[in-house]
Amino acid sequence: MTRHIELALIGGTGLYQFPGLDKIERHAVDTPYGPPSDSVVLGQVGKHRIAFLARHGESHTIPPHRVNYRANVWALHHLGARRVLGVNAVGGIRGDVGPRVLAVPDQIIDYTHDRLTSYCDVAGAEVRHIDFSEPYSAGLRKDLLAAASQAGVAVVDGGCYGATQGPRLETCAEIVRLRRDGCDLVGMTGMPEAALARELGLDYACLALVANWAAGCGGETEISLPEIFANLAAMTTQVPRLISALLA
Ligand code: HPA
């Protein structure tokens, strides 16, 4: 296959391409779990080779509960990626993680259901119980936080990501429950991606982009989609700088 991939990025809502990639190759990977969300784009940031995959497809046609997480993570591993950064749009629950804040969570509570959550559930596969006490890779989180500080990108270190089923947003009561449970952020795509990455032995971390206050947290009656997209657009411009520093 191709040269070593230093980092793979899974882009979420608002991040459908990685700007400024050189020497692009597109790989339509066939996986035992069906097709990934889109072709995997391999390309260079300076002299560093990275992979990029749009989680919802490059035209955002796949909702969170229909993403083929197993195929996506498998495809990146198959192409040789060993470090994967998931970029996820989220709602902010905790007071210091409001719109336009970037955060690197350190815990997860999974509220999703009816998703294919493991590589163990195909006939004949060995049943493995991965350790998931710390769901994100400590090394990749540390490097990401150092890169952010070096690049002058403000990020919040830590927080618990509550993964909900979507595609609808939550009710105020659901967010009260998530807050009571200890969630600081809420998103629809953090799981099972993180667990699948662990099953394949990948280093995986999450860069959460806070697009809106979670239901009932911002005082507004309705969460506005144009506002979500405007907030995401303001944050995704910082991602290439952060990634360049991470690769340096
Ligand atoms: N809830 C769940 N997922 C999200 C949100 C939210 O408020 N905002 C962006 N993704």
From TrEMBL:
Q: Where is this site: Important for substrate specificity?
A: E170, L225
Q: Which UniProt keywords apply?
A: Glycosyltransferase, Purine salvage, Transferase
Pathway(s) it belongs to? Purine metabolism; purine nucleoside salvage
Q: What is its EC number?
A: 2.4.2.1
* A Pfam family recorded for this sequence: PNP_UDP_1
> Which parts of the sequence bind phosphate?
T13, R55, H56, T189
Residues annotated as domain Nucleoside phosphorylase:
7-237
Presence of the UniProt keyword Iron in the record: no
Its recorded reaction(s) are: a purine D-ribonucleoside + phosphate = a purine nucleobase + alpha-D-ribose 1-phosphate
Quaternary structure per UniProt? Homohexamer. Dimer of a homotrimer.
By sequence similarity, the record places it as follows:
Belongs to the PNP/MTAP phosphorylase family. MTAP subfamily.
Write out the function statement from the record. Answer: Purine nucleoside phosphorylase which is highly specific for 6-oxopurine nucleosides. Cleaves guanosine or inosine to respective bases and sugar-1-phosphate molecules. Involved in purine salvage.
Please share what else the UniProt entry notes about this protein.
Answer: Although this enzyme belongs to the family of MTA phosphorylases based on sequence homology, it has been shown that conserved amino acid substitutions in the substrate binding pocket convert the substrate specificity of this enzyme from 6-aminopurines to 6-oxopurines.
Which PANTHER family does this chain map to? S-METHYL-5'-THIOADENOSINE PHOSPHORYLASE
Name the UniProt record assigns to this protein: Probable 6-oxopurine nucleoside phosphorylase
Please tell me the species this chain comes from.
Answer: Dokdonella soli
